[in-house]
Design goal:
alpha+beta, 2 helices, 4 strands, about 70 residues, globular, four-stranded mixed β-sheet
C-alpha cells in the first residue's frame, strides 16, 4: 500500500512507528529504506517498485518547544 502511495504522491515523506523506528524516508525524490532486516523482510522489499537505497535514520533528540 505504501509503495503505491509513494508512486502517486510527490514530495518528501517519512514512514515511522511511534517516533521510534523510521521505516522509510523520501527526501528530494530519493527513497531510502531502513537497513533493519527485521522491518524490511524479503517479501516486503519485493513489492517496493521505486528505486531505493538502504540507510539508517534516527529522530533527533531535540524536541521542539511548545
Amino acid at each position: 500500500m505504501t509503495s503505491g502511495l509513494l508512486g502517486r504522491v510527490a514530495g518528501d515523506a517519512v514512514l515511522h512507528f511511534q517516533f521510534e523506528a523510521i521505516w522509510l524516508l523520501r527526501r528530494g525524490g530519493e527513497l531510502s529504506l531502513s537497513e533493519r532486516d527485521d522491518l524490511w523482510l524479503p517479501q516486503r522489499l519485493a513489492v517496493v517498485t521505486q528505486t531505493y537505497r538502504r540507510a539508517t535514520h534516527a529522530f533527533s533528540e531535540e524536541r521542539p518547544q511548545q
